[in-house]
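Hi support team,

I'm opening this ticket because the web form for multi-chain structure prediction keeps timing out on my end. I have pasted the exact lines I submitted so you can reproduce it. The total is 1278 residues across three entries, so I didn't expect it to be a heavy job. Is there a limit I'm missing, or should I split the entries? Thanks in advance, R.K.
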Amino acid sequence: MTNAKISSGQLFMLMVIFSMGTAILRPLAIQAGKDSWLATLLGAIGGMIILWVYTTLYRAYPTFSFTGYMVEILGKKTGYFFGLLYTLFFIHGAARDVREGGDLIGSTILERTPVTIVIFVLIMAASYILIQGIEVLARTAETFFFILILLIVVSSVCICFSEIIDLSRLFPILGSGWTPVIKTTLKQTIEFPYEEFVCFTMIFPHLKQLKTGIKAGFAAIIISGLLLSYISAINIVVLGPEIVSHASFPLLHTISLVDINNFIQRLDILAVLLLILSDFFKITIFFYAGVIAATDIFQIHDYRKVVYPIGIIILLSSKLQSANFAEQIQEGNILLVTTFFLFGVIIPVFLVIIHKLQLKYNKIRRS
Amino acid sequence: MVFSWLLKSLKTIDQQSLPQLKQSEKKIPIQKDIRATISQLKCKLGYSPDLIVRTFQVQNSPTNQIATIYMQGLVDEDKVNHFITHSLCITPGELNSSSLIYSKNCFEDIKTKALTVGNVQIENDWNNMLHQLLSGDIIILVNGFTNCIIGNLRGGERRPVSEPQVETNIRGPKDSFTESIGTNIALIRRKIKNPNLWMESICIGDISKTDVTIMYVKGIAEEQLIEKTRKSIRNIKVNFILDSGYVEELIQKQAYTPFPTIFNSERPDVIAGNLLEGRIAVFVDGTPNTLILPTTFSQFFKAAEDYYQKFDFSVFMRVIRYLSFFIVILMPAIYIALTTYHQEMIPTPLVITLLAQREDTPFPAVVEALLMEFIFEIIREAGIRMPRAIGQAVSIVGAIVIGQAAVQAGIVTAMMVIIVSITGIASFALPSYSLSISARLIRFPIMGAAAILGIYGVIMSIIILVAHMNSLKSFGVPYLSPFAPFHFKQQKDTIWRAPFESEKSYPIGNDREDD
Amino acid sequence: MRIKDIFLSLIILCIFFLSGCWDYRELNQIAFAMAIGIDKVPDKNEYRISFQIVNAKTIASEKGAIGMAPIIVYSSTGKNLLLATRKASKQVPRKINAQHTRAIIIGEQLAKEGIRDVVDLIERDPELRVTTTVLIAKNSDANTILKTLTPIENIPANAILGKLNTTEKIFAANYSANIDDVIRGILTTGGGPIISGIQLTNKTVSHSHLSNLQKTDISNRLSIQDMAVFKKDKLVGWIEGTKRTQGLSWINNKMKGSIVALNCGRKKEAIAIEIFHSKTKIKAEFKDNRPLIRIHITERGAVGEAMCAVHLSDFKEIHMLEQQWENKVKLEVQEAIKKAQRLKTDVLGFGVALERDNPQKWNEIKNTWREIFPTCKVEVQVTAKIRRSGQIINPY
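Hello R.K., no limit was hit. The queue was backed up. Here is the completed structure from your submission:
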């Protein structure tokens, strides 16, 4: 496992695609109304703080993955217990994203196909990539990163040319004051998607160079914050805050309004492509994190053996997630501030504190 | 149980081991008695009529004979007589009279005299002598000596250097390799007149004993790569090698992939260019197709002509080639996906026209697509096999009659014929035949995926395809470099071809990642 | 292990092939509806939905289709629209597919009762696109409009849209509204959407017959007429007359090109000015606790036709013409505003402007905006420039 090496550039691209994942699907930070783009930018700053926590731990234990150094810091029994919890957490995260992706495809392009088949194909593709190794995943992400950027650029150009933009919808900036912006930032944009970056703590040990890798990580957060804020702004500028808040998939709605000269129309497929690709990589990374956590906890040497079983677990648990779309979103909002917050922020902070205390204790003992 | 046996027997073409045909490795000396040697030789070769043995009497010792042995057709007939006359000091016109004196030194004398006419070696091993004889050398045996003299007079009828059959170009050198490895190597030597052009010759194929030569430019090619190539070729244990395709399959690491990981070409300028970029060329005797390794995906889109025309045109043509590749694999699939799953993505006037065409056709779009694609493949194969005399008639029958008549009879829609033809033409736009056959193969599963899951199926197949390509490595170099891992500097020669002032040859060794 | 892998994947592949394709639809299993008409059935509390299905063979002029109408209209009724649509399957030989619907026509009666429910279906259903144009059928029901055959354009839906798009660009007495605009209008505080109307002139029985198209002078024609003004989602009135509808276009920044007719001495409306560029900016502020709206219109045009003796080479004359133009525009805009204020619905974007320029004050009054709107003071300022005068300068 530690033989595979990924470069900092590849880590950067993985992180950006990951953050775009399900965030492009949903109306992000719409409680802030017209200033949702501002809330997203502020959320990026919070994200950097969260990443700083992860990188501190990485610097302390550069060759261990998260579950690895959890055992080191907390001791065997507690470490393994939490490791098991984290395995379940990663599987749950993957299943959630799988369910959302499946719902998206099922409600837009493949209506009558049972969602199970759609999800099954997704999981099979993800398993195939994981069996080949993290390097293949990184290289595939590199290949598709450029395609994603191209798609975003093409969509933006089409939107600009099609006269549906009305910049006045953004004004007045901060019309309702800072309160809704700050509230949304604290409740939503710091957590989503930055809490989910805990998966990357499982990938950090594969980096070729520590320093540039960490720099790449921070750069990725800035870029992804800018991207998400840009998409938020486009949604507002084209649709207006009222329509954004009551559409299920605002980006889809925005792109479907593009109509240049009655010839270039129906560009929904670009949006769907974007969403499938970014969701796919998010799922694969969560999947990988779960697989590595499982191999760490159960001391399995070849992680390839665990890929298919975990894949099937993800498939089954995605069906069990929630009964319908509304429940999925409501649950998601609650989970953001509870479970994800716990696993993504509180436990790592806890670990950092204990680690620092341990260092001090060792220093005192030595002197 | 039965299945595993079935699959095992289908797994590889096992060349049956024929131990009795393999020559043993130990050294057998040549007998002193020349008559015994000659009869042994004739017996070993089955009294073959093309084995020519000419014996000469020595003046002072009638019992001691000198024999010259060669295979007719493998030697240069014009030079044989000249060689014999001069090395054995025979005055032409006089009956079997050699002015040589039989003595202990006559072997040396003959050798010295032979040197003046050609390249000579001394050999004392029976197996090696046999091998050289069968390669086209002439052997001089002297009674009483266990050594023999081997003169290099290889010649015989060979195909002359002509224009390339497959990789044609408008501008640039028009010579191509032939079946003789000596000629091929010489063609490269002419283009790279550098002492650092080194080569190593290995003999593989237990029965066919084919010559394989590895060529590289010392200093540009990476040492590890050369060693790896050497090792993999030495490890080939088969009975015969008839074409570089055998070698390609045997040294390739991953067998189960539709993509070629080793490049081959019949043009010396392509090979020379690649050698100068740090790659290794593998020549196989008996075939003009020479291998180049390691190879990346972008290599298959480079045509020699890119470097001879201006760079802006080359960039344009490269973009078109990449587009053609995507057209070949994706066009029928996207057509099927759009017309059967996502009709909303087609502009309205087109939908109505397609609908009108579809009204009377009996088959579903998928069946139609597969049918037309298969028929096109049959026509293509027929085009390769048919003799030139009836070539024109068959192409008229194939293309016009089948296409036109089928549409008019209402069996297929006109749009389908258009799609299939565009796909076919696009597959001819790819400069490398190995890649175009891969593309033709890949499009069928993608069509299947499109038929089942629409555009989602196409997207998923592309993801899996790209992931598969990323997992391939050609002698340590990731298959999709320089796209992934992305090296900005190397983009100078993938889709973009930088103008020559700024281009430096970039050794590919830096990319290699060993497992 | 490899062989087992291959087998496993083969078996899994078979699952795909054996279970059939669910979303697979051949083109000839679909009936494409080019336009949809929605009406309220009088007396019953039901909706009637009509589909204008295209007959592909006649369009592509395949053999065997001579003498057939290019479209067929199917309709059915039901308590809700989706139910009515599915009921229509009893008559239509294929599944109706609304992905290529270009126009939705709503009957006047239904519009008066409220179009909110219609809009909900259109937004929710992924097949119908939000860029579909909406029209209100004036003085008739949508079914009749759909059944009318049109010359020049085979498919009447295309004809209707062609009429709307062309007149929008060169006459600007109507402009197009798609579903997105309608939704936005409904969600505007105190306002509603503005939708163009379509009318069938000189209706006779033969309007849906092919024989109608075989004359050179077709008596029953579809034409785009007036604009329907909504309060929330109910139709409250029509703005009629070229002046007021053009005024509406100006205020909503939809004037893309039109003709303004000016007087010349005693001859009324003898000079035609062709507008080729027009931009409207609305600024709002509060003065004496009453909202004051400033509308600033910038226009550029050229003299298109001069039917009297006027010295167009004299810049002073041009200046006078410009002033006349400005006054005319002001008048038309004010008339439009008066009508909208009388109907008590803010279709002019004043509320949006207020919200943008003075959000705090807006928050206070937004709940009572519908009452305050008619009391708004409006100042109209027009800057008009005549740049060119065509191929000749002075008329004969």
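A quick check on our side: The mean pLDDT of chain C is 84. Let us know if the file doesn't open in your viewer.
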